[in-house]
Write a structure and sequence with these properties.
14% strand; three-stranded antiparallel sheet; alpha+beta; 70 residues; 36% helix
Amino acid sequence: MSQLLTTQDLKSITGCSRMSDLEQCLKNNGVRFLYGKKGIFTTVDAVNSAMGLSADKNTATTNHDDFDIM
């Protein structure tokens, strides 16, 4: 099971302080997320997937051209 990333984790990672900026950043970068009672959450796997990384180290690819953190 992939580790969960909380709203606070995501704000720290992206540098976004406002919820609306965080939502837009995740959407712009193709990170799938859900809304919970305490805010937005996602998984490490969802972030990796948006970055073009695979859980299988033999098939992992990187494509940094389209990743843009605000």
